[in-house]
What does this fold into?
Amino acid sequence: MLASYLLQVTYAVFNFGKVIADIYVLKIVAQEMTPMSSNMRFDICIDTRMKSACQVVFASALVLAFTAGCSSKNYVRSQTTPIIQQTNELDAKTAADHRNITDTDERAQKGISGAQSAADTADQHAVAAGQSADAAGHSAQEAYNRVDSLSGVIANLDNYKPISDVSVTFGFDKSVLTAADRKQLDDFAETLTNARSYILEVTGGTDSVGDANYNYELSQRRADAVVNYLSSKHNIPPHKFYLIGIGKDQEVASNNTSAGRAKNRRVEIKLMTNMSDQPTTSAAKPPTGQ
It folds into this structure.
């Protein structure tokens, strides 16, 4: 559209120049063919015609320029108005989407903060519970009697007599009770129901494989596993237990065979009762004759 407008203006200027050239040609021819007085009159006429022609050309150029300008503006307006409307609609949609995204992000952040706070609270409770359990377990461990032997620890040890015993075995380098082990301990705990003034001697052992110090610690862990189970499952007071870790020092079978080593990976529990504290029954008197 702009190129057409420039072409029209150029064409008008070209015509204007052409008219001026024609007028000057006529003036020169007239001067050569007429006397002086006529030339003067012709000059005046020519000047007048030139002025009129110039006015007509400039008026035409102005009208043409105005018309072309108006046409150009109307064309541009008709083409740009839909684009401006679409741009405004896109800006409005973008602003609305941004607000929605911001609102969603704020809600998400609040949800995350709430979940994190709940998780932190749960973690704190779990840590506190774990600490309480550890403290309770530590207290129970401290309450157990850990001795090298019962001699010199139990007063009047000679008065204690073994009533029953049980032995559980462990896998190689293991200190975890199996289901069969727990069943044996449950059966053994039933014998404590009516027992009085009793103690439980718990002896943990290992086979001869491995370092001696490690085996002492392993035998102690095995004894702990048995004691913790009986204490928690059957409510046996911790002070009733006397734990003795013997490692490989006291074997019950030869460590030269796999079967013998399996027997040595054991924990023995003996129920011992102070016989002097047991109730005595009076002997029946023989009948007297008449």
Summary: The two ends are 157 Å apart (CA to CA). The longest helix spans residues 36-143.
